[in-house]
Design a protein that fits this description.
This protein is of the alpha/beta class and 411 residues long. It folds into two domains: 3-31 and 276-406, Lyase, Ornithine Decarboxylase, Chain A, domain 1, CATH 2.40.37; 34-275, Alanine racemase (TIM Barrel, Alpha-Beta Barrel). It has eleven helices and 20 strands. β8 (118-121), α6 (124-133) and β9 form a beta-alpha-beta unit. The relative contact order is 0.16. The termini are far apart. The structure holds ligand LLP. Ligand LLP binds at residues 55, 57-58, 76, 99, 156, 195, 198-199, 228-231, 269-273, 309, 313, 369-370.
Length: 411
């Protein structure tokens, strides 16, 4: 949102020159436009109202949890670890929503003890566990699988009947779960939840979700209907996605059309659409290897350890030079990382300016979601730092790992 290019073509974000930042902080480096993050959180709260939760799995550190909370979002945590980080950031427990298809007794106890706002119940075994725990009487939503196939990658499609998540509507499991939860003295049933998948481009997929959910939800007369996360973002040229505002409007329209009672709290859990486009990754080019008649490999100092999405889902990204932001990108290259695998792509079909040389800093935009959060230490590569930029200043919110960190758990 806050990118600007000076007369010589150099790119700044939030008033901070990216090449200077790369020199100071080293590469690879995640750079987030803090005002962009805040604007997306505010947009979500305005569009959905109170109760909308940030899907923290997309990107979580204490600074991000605090930011989402400051901007009025609840936070969806999917494990005890995410719960721990959000609490450590000072987010009040009642603003947290606990997810997970296999929550341990330990995770459930921790959540009930601190008093999380909502627990999204995913299995009959979990209901058993909650009943064994007793005490606290947490508010719960029941997660149902509506049998919708969202148009997205198979690995991130979650709403179809064949899913490890939630209770099937078609099988009657959802109905049985509701009956048990209604009777249970261990919990307070507060609503229904579904999540159809991630990186979904069509508002229509969510409309369809509401249509299917409504006939189940309406007769239950429960206060909340959460339609999950999943709004897609454009990664490469030519892609388009609805805004958060348009997404909410489509869902609200569908709720009205499907007779969802007006007083229902309709909520959502956007992750990617809050953080993805707020960030880019800076890398330094280490080698350029043209292979006559085949392709040119341009290798950078990171790769599948800081962004596994190209390897996992075949995801595409753009690539450009922040020293010549608007330069024509005429040279076809395959941007690869430094890992010991041929599949270690950063940008499989990239284009860079023809004068790109070893030592140049390159940028891949839209890496704010599921990059840092899915980063690993494969090949014992330390994970990159995360910097928030705003108003001409940069602050490191996650420092770079050191070689010592790589042995922190060795005994
Ligand atoms: N709610 C639930 C229950 C979820 O499982 C997820 C994501 C979200 C909300 C947030 O979804 P979002 O708005 O970010 O799409 N690693 C994959 C994405 C996995 C999504 C997992 N669940 C990727 O890099 O594309």
């Amino acid at each position: 949102m806050n990118a600007s290019v000076d007369a010589s073509g150099r790119l700044s974000i939030g008033g901070v020159d990216l090449l200077d930042l790369a020199s100071e902080q080293g590469t690879p480096l995640f750079v987030y436009d803090e005002d962009h993050l805040r604007a997306r959180c505010r947009e979500a709260v305005t569009a959905w109202g109170d109760g909308v939760a940030y899907g923290a799995k997309a990107f979580l550190c204490r600074a991000m949890a605090a930011l989402a909370h400051e901007e009025g979002m609840c936070i969806d945590v999917a494990t005890g670890g995410e719960l721990h980080v959000a609490l450590a950031a000072g987010v009040p427990a009642e603003r947290l929503v606990l997810h997970g298809n296999n929550k341990s007794e330990h995770e459930l106890r921790a959540a009930v003890e601190v008093g999380v706002g909502r627990i999204v119940v995913d299995s009959f075994d979990e209901i058993d566990r909650l009943e064994r725990l007793g005490g606290g009487r947490p508010r719960v939503l029941v997660r149902v699988t509506p049998g919708i196939e969202a148009h997205t990658h198979e690995y991130i499609m979650t709403g179809q009947a064949d899913s490890k998540f939630g209770f099937g509507l078609a099988t009657g499991d959802a109905e049985r779960a509701v009956r048990r939860l209604e009777r249970s003295r261990a919990v307070e049933l507060a609503g229904v939840h579904a999540h159809i998948g991630s990186q979904v481009f069509l508002a229509d997929s969510f409309v369809r979700e509401v249509e299917v959910l409504a006939s189940f939800f309406n007769p239950l007369a429960l206060p909340e209907l959460c339609i999950g996360g999943g709004l897609g973002v454009p990664y490469v040229e030519g892609e388009e996605a609805p805004t958060i505002t348009e997404w909410a409007a489509a869902v609200h329209g569908a709720c009205t059309a499907s007779g969802v009672p007006e007083e229902t709290r309709v909520t959502a859990e956007p992750g990617r659409s809050i953080v993805a486009a707020a960030a880019l990754t800076l890398y330094r080019v280490g080698t350029i290897k043209p292979i006559e008649g085949v392709r040119t490999y341009l290798a950078v100092d990171g790769g599948m350890s800081d962004n596994p999405r190209p390897v996992l889902y075949g995801s595409g990204y753009e690539v450009f030079l922040p020293r010549s932001t608007d330069a024509d990108r005429t040279r076809a290259v395959t941007v690869v990382g430094k890992h010991c695998e041929s599949g270690d792509f950063v940008v499989r079909h990239g284009r860079v300016p023809s004068d790109t040389v070893v030592g140049d800093v390159i940028a891949t935009p839209v890496t704010g979601a599921y990059g840092h959060s899915m980063a690993s230490n494969y090949n014992k590569v330390p994970r990159p730092p995360v910097v928030f930029v705003s108003g001409g200043a940069a602050r490191v919110v996650v420092r770079r790992e050191t070689y010592e960190d790589l042995m922190a758990c060795d005994v």
